[in-house]
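pasting for ref. prot 1 ->
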Amino acid sequence: MKCKKCRSEIPAKQVNINTDLAHCKICNTIFKISEVPSINPSFDIKKSPKGTWYKRVSSKELKIGASTASPMAFFLIPFMLIWSGGSLGGIYGTQIFSGEFSLFTSLFGIPFLIGTIIFGSIAVMFVAGKVEITLTKHGGKVFTGVGSLGFSKSFLWSEVSTITEVHSTSFRNKSYGRGSKISLEGSRRVSFGSYLRESRRFYIIEALKSVHYNIIDNNTLSF
């Protein structure tokens, strides 16, 4: 294996699997073996499965992404329409048709209004959402949303030591298909991809590991 810091080859006698530690005598660095980027030799970033993509934008930039479309939309959309239509129609619709405003009733309906917004955003993500990561040699930007509408998170490769999958223990998240997410961990944590199906999340994780390894080992985005 290679040193995490100077990338020199480390002899086997300086690697201790049991303690998860390695010692590089070249730069006198001791580090955790589990924090050294590694890749799956059978993974090919260019062979993106259905619902994912790999795009070479330029020699200095590439994009990987995945659709968040899910069969859950067939169940969530009708539920949202019935639940939201009934609750909001009964609370606000009656006031509109009667021409009488009730402060108490309007305030009572706020939680239902918030619920409608939450259910609606999840439903839209399950129909036409995406997660797309723009990558350079220095870092990347993660976009989650629909079309050009959404939010972004940025990170630097120097901040990343581990790329992993984190599983949620929340029943609420699991019930909406948000049981796991991708986590970039190091000096800070960047998490995303909770709407992705398992196979698509796996591709994104392995693709990020490949890019990370290439940049650290070869200082290149080439594949």
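and prot 2 ->
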Amino acid sequence: MAQKLKFGNGTWATKEGSTLAYNDENNNYKPLPFTTTRNSIATRVNKEGLIEVVGRDAPRIDYLDSEDGVFLLEKASTNLITYSEDFSNAAWHKSEATIESGYLAPDGTLNAFKVSGVIGFLSTTPPTTQTTTRSIYARTVSGIGTAQLLSHNSNTNNIFTITEEWQRFDLNTSGLTGFNNFYAVDFRGSSTLNEIILWGGQAESGNLSSYIPTNGSTVTRQADTASGAGNDVVFNDSEGVLFADISAFDGAGGGTRRIEVSNGVSATQYVRLQIANGDGSLYAILNNGSQQFLFNETSFNATLPNKISLKYKENDFSLFVNGFEVGSSNVGNTFANGVLRQANFSSTLSEFYGKTKELGYYDTALTDEELEYMTSYRTLRRMAKELNLNKL
């Protein structure tokens, strides 16, 4: 099962503005890059487990929950906390709480602060209250305890168990008391700790996203895009398999998200995997000017890791998800010669946002046994590794 195009699976080659795909047939990289764009800096977790800033348009291979790394694509988001790390700044109100700088932070610097208090709190007021998600990194000085983070002490959904290891804690702000203020920590309520080390406060409108550092103003991380890998020599118009090992950031209502092989010009010539906006279900579609195959898998959780294979061949179409065939058809045509020429993590106004462990393309129609094998977890050890169960 040699892949004509293999992107990921622990094998990455990136530079500013692009990331290369691999060709299994002769075991080397080919000039088949995805063009990546993002008109801002962003952060990722590197192989050493540290948060690091990457430059504009630099693709992000993130190792937060995968030792093999994932290709990280996110929609735009703004951190509304103006001083996300400098808790000594006057923007942070320190009521009956003291702070001490110089502690090792998740980015490897000594920019974390110890906050101490018994009846005190550390808070700031974002320039807008239109935030739906708050997050902060926290650890104890020693031992394990609980503390109320991210909101006022009168709330009860903000009590977190803190350990000596850095963790990122997050909270949905819907229905919170005192939602106008961002309480990094509030010792006045149900805390067993009276000191805690903090770093990296974030408040955003939308779901939790990667950390966005700020220093004096709000900062927006622009959206990621990736498109244009391959050429007409890579893709076979008459038969092939599109494979994706992915998880999306949003389930139902997260917008339409697409991964496809197409001619890069027409909106009616493609092999497509699509996550629906309305219910988060999976659609597999082949359209060669008219729809030839469409299957909708409704028993599908887009936010979980999913291995998906869509096979196409004249009068022979099938869709496999996580080791099971969930759709097939023995009626339909494929493409005229020279149509398929690029793979994209998008279609018009339908960007894919999520984590990609692998995107693959085979220029032959594989057997059912091969499709079952490639979408399955072959051993419990492999499943634990790929699903990050060994870190639970």
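The chain has a mean pLDDT of 90.
The chain has two domains: 5-75+224-391, 79-221.
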